[in-house]
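Final report, closing paragraph on structural work. Over the funding period we assembled a curated collection of sequence-structure pairs, and we close with a single example.
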Amino acid sequence: MENRKKWIEEMLATHAEDPFLHYALALENQKEGLITEAIQIMEKLQANFPDYLATYYQLGKLYESIGENEKAVDAFLDGRRLAKKNGDIKATGELSEALMMHDIFD
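Its predicted structure, as stored:
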């Protein structure tokens, strides 16, 4: 796993504008239990690449894992708005299900 993380970091050094690499690095940090670092990467990803849809669900789940439920709901809502705008039915459904877990049904 460490090799994968190192490889992603090396790729980011030359491909910093690739949102998937940032996303992958956040997931690697999450796997290692580095939740704060994963959240920081996802927050930067959201700020710098707001149209990268996968960010929102994972960021919401990370927030949930540390008990930041209001932030989780905000991430899920933002993601669902983007998914609806993009016509992504699958992502809209996944984000809606995540919101239902917080008793948000709108």
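The chain has one domain: 2-100. The radius of gyration is 14 Å. We thank the funder for supporting this effort.
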